[in-house]
Amino acid sequence: MSTETSGLAIETAGLVKTFGTTRAVDGVDLRVPAGTVYGVLGPNGAGKTTAVRMLATLLRPDAGEARVFGHDVVREADEVRARVSLTGQYASVDEDLTGAENLTLLARLLGHGRPAARRRSEQLLAAFGLTEAASRQIKHYSGGMRRRIDIAASILNTPDLLFLDEPTTGLDPRSRNQVWNIVRAVVAQGTTVLLTTQYLDEADQLASRIAVIDRGKVIAEGTKGELKASVGAGSVHLRLREAGRRADAERVLRGLPAAEVQLDGDPVALTARLTATAGDSAAEQAARALAALTRAGITVDHFSLGQPSLDEVFLALTGHGTGQEGLPSPDDDPKDGVAA
Ligand SMILES: Nc1ncnc2c1ncn2[C@@H]1O[C@H](COP(=O)(O)OP(=O)(O)O)[C@@H](O)[C@H]1O
Ligand SMILES: [Mg+2]
């Protein structure tokens, strides 16, 4: 495989990790360009954490090879470790210490002198919106604050490659946005980020390229544009005034080009999956769908235009869902909808 001059932060070939009879990572080939955010998208149990742990030298691959900035993760583990950071792993915060104490202590452990450690700590607390919480114990932090301090701890020394393993899972939309802004700022400083996520919109917001993994295998890889072109542009979720009109609405929508209709559990709700092309955006298609329903005399009480969920991506790519259809997603927030 190539060396550091290849411009790749990560390069793997046939990477495998087995636990008993589970092939957690089952022959993964990845090429992550340096200086970018690379998204690894997959449901629970897909093998994301196992792959990250091998790349971060915490777990030994059973087969295949992986290089980080040209260094083999097994034979040159020290060189790799010197250049990477993994949130919540190398730098884990102490619940009983305050935010400021944690960062200052970790900076001291990394070899900074006392004044430099305090300076770096203050700088990061300010950058992460934690100045006010600096003198509070971590155990009293909210989930979003906790995630931010974890990331702060992992970039005390600016790493060349930062692994963020599901940095926003379980966070509310506002906290997610704060974490996203932090990731953008980290990359702007030249760090490569490997981000794992269960949310397509998160990969879409942050990543230049995305690998979709399922059961230890990469099932799709490309730029976000390529990925979206292969899975569709999203969906219109509709709620009708009268349940009795749903069959009519379904017929009207099926008559439109490029819409795949799905009936939801709720008797007044249905979803049309859109397959937008260059000249025909998802918004235009959604507008056409609403107009057609209006012409048919069907009253729509509420609609929202959503990006494809991970489940829809999986359905499009594999013909099966993630097996986590009931999983709450930040995309499902009804406040995002538009009353019709
Ligand atoms: N230490 C372990 N021992 C046994 N099985 C494991 C271990 N770590 C992960 N697995 C299994 O490997 C698969 C992939 O897990 P993981 O890499 O954690 O996926 P993800 O991070 O995508 O949710 C799962 O089936 C999981 O149960
Ligand atoms: Mg995981």
TrEMBL record:
Its EC number is 7.6.2.2. Coiled coil: none annotated. Keywords: Antibiotic resistance, ATP-binding, Cell membrane, Membrane, Nucleotide-binding, Translocase, Transport. It comes from the Bacteria. It is found in: Cell membrane. Residues 320-340 are annotated as: Disordered. GO terms for molecular function: ABC-type xenobiotic transporter activity; ATP binding; ATP hydrolysis activity. The keyword GTP-binding does not apply. Signal peptide: none annotated. One of its GO terms (cellular component) is plasma membrane. GO terms for biological process: daunorubicin transport; doxorubicin transport; response to antibiotic. Residues 10-240 form the ABC transporter domain. Gene3D superfamilies: P-loop containing nucleotide triphosphate hydrolases. It is a peripheral membrane protein. PANTHER family: ABC TRANSPORTER ATP-BINDING PROTEIN, DOXORUBICIN RESISTANCE ATP-BINDING PROTEIN DRRA. This is ABC-type xenobiotic transporter. It comes from Streptomyces griseoviridis.
